[in-house]
Structure formats: C-alpha cells, structure tokens
Amino acid sequence: MPFAKFCQDRYDALIEALGDSNTQLVESRSAVEEVEEKLDRIPKLREDYSELQATSKSTILCLEDEIDTLKHQVQNLQAQLAALTSHPDLGSPPPPALARLLFSQDQELTAARLRDQTQDQSLLEVRQHLKDRDQDLSKAQQRCQALERSEASLEAAALQLQRQIGAQDRRIARLQEERDQFRTDCHEAQAERDRPVAKVTSSSERLDKARAELRARGNHVDSMRANISRLEQQVADLQAVSSQVNHRFMSQKREIAALQVEHAALTTHYKDAYSRLWTVVRSLNQDVALPTPASSI
C-alpha cells in the first residue's frame, strides 16, 4: 500500500540518519577523550617544569658553595706558600720537620690543583649540563605555553564538541520520537490493512469449511445411495430366497404331513401286528421278551 511504503521509506531514512548521528557521536567522543587526555598531561608537565627549576637552582647553589670552598683552600695554600718563601732561613737548608711540612704542603697544593682542575672540568660539565637544562627548561616552558594556548583552544573545541554532542543527542531523541511515531503509524496502517484481509480470510475459511461440509455431505449422500442400492439388491435377493424358502417350507410341510400319515398308518399296523404276535405268544405259553409298541415306534 502507498502509505505503508511511505512509512517504511521514512522509517528507513530515520534509521540511516540515526546511524550517521551515532557514528558522528562516537567520533566526537573520541576527540573529546583525546583532548581530555592532553589536558590531564598539562599538570604533569607543569610539575616537571617546576621540579627542573628547583633542581637546577639547588645544583647551582651546591656548585657555588664548592667553588667558594676551593677558592678558600687555594687562598690558604697561597698564604702558606708566601709565608714559606719569606722565611729568613730559606737560604740555609731547612730542618727536617720544615722539609716534611713543605713536602706535604707541596703535595697538598698539587692535589688541590688537581682537584681544582677536576672541579673546573666538573664545573664546565655542570655548566654545560645547566645550559642544556636551561635549554630543555626553555623548550619545556615553550611547550607549556603552547600547551596552555592549545588548552584554551582545546577547551573551546571541547565546549563546541559538547554543544555538538548535545545537539546530536537532541536530534537523536527527536529522530527516535519520529521513528516511534512512524512505527505507531505503520502499525496502525498495517492493522487497518490487516482487518479487511482478516475478514476476507475468515470469509474464505468459512466458505472453504461450508464447501468441505457440502462435499462431505454429498459424499455421504452418494455413500447412502450406494448403500440403499446395495440394501435394495439385498432385499430383492432376500425376497427371492424367502420365496424359495417358503416354497421349500410348503413342500417340506406337505412331505411332513404325508410322513405323519404314513407314520400313523405304520403305528396302527405295528400295533395290530404286535397284538397278533402277543396273542400267538400267549397261546403258545412261551415267555418271549417283546418290545413295547411305544419303544418300537
């Protein structure tokens, strides 16, 4: 039906739009999660930057303290050397204690110079390290500034995405409402379409049932007709047999009557013969066991 097809097409279009909206929503949520992850890394970068600044300051202070200590040691050694060179007995051979003192001070001065060279090398390395650290700090600061700038843009983008997500959610809710309304309309249209179909189907079923009943009754009538024909044939056969039986019965009845007449005649004749025989036996005075007329018949 045209309306049902229109509803189905509209429903399919709404489902497709809903799928596109869900895809865009998933992509927007992925972008928001990425932005939130970057925002979460900003406090860690700030902490690292503050820690680097504190570490560089403490390292510089420690190196300055060591440099001051070395300077004091060098000044003390220079003062001791000046005192030794200005001693009045310097032209004469020094006493053993003074020689040992000079030798030990000379060794200490040599060791101090070596330490000074080592400290200078370490200081150069530390300065280079501090320079690299300063460069890293500068780069980190630049990154932090860039991240702060990008943070504002990301926050604006996040707000924009949130607004878009809200709009998508509202659109999805509206599409779902329209889908539900169209689904209800489709169900109603299908119900309206199915009611005449159900009536036609019910009428067709009733007609089929009536036809089946008529066909069954026709078959039953045909069967009854065949049975009636068979019964009529059986009645005719029975009537023929009955007439034959009656004929035989009458003939047998006549035969029985003739036999009864003959039996009565034979009985009378036997009784007469028995009486005569009995008379003869009695006249002869012989004891003969003769059967009675009743047992002989």
How would you describe the overall organization of this protein?
It comes from Phytophthora palmivora. This is Metal ion binding protein. Keywords: Coiled coil. Residues 35-87, 130-192, 221-248 form a coiled coil. The protein has 297 residues and is mostly helical. The protein has a domain at 2-84 and 105-208: Helix Hairpins (Orthogonal Bundle), CATH 1.10.287. It is 93% helix and 0% strand. It is built from three helices and no strands. The longest helix is centred in the middle third of the chain and has 188 residues, at 96-283. It is elongated and about 225 Å long. Residues 89-94 have low confidence and may be disordered.
Q: What is the H-and-E element order?
A: HHH
Largest sheet: none
* Number of DSSP strand runs: 0
At CATH level 2, the architecture of the domain at 2-84 and 105-208 is Orthogonal Bundle
Radius of gyration: 72 Å
Name of the level-1 CATH class of the domain at 2-84 and 105-208: Mainly Alpha
User: Which percent bin holds the helix content?
Assistant: over 70%
Mean pLDDT: 75
Structural class: mainly alpha
- At CATH level 3, the topology of the domain at 2-84 and 105-208 is Helix Hairpins
Low-pLDDT runs = 89-94
What is the strand content?
Answer: under 5%
User: Number of helical runs?
Assistant: 3
Shape verdict = elongated
* Separation of the first and last Cα atoms: 107 Å
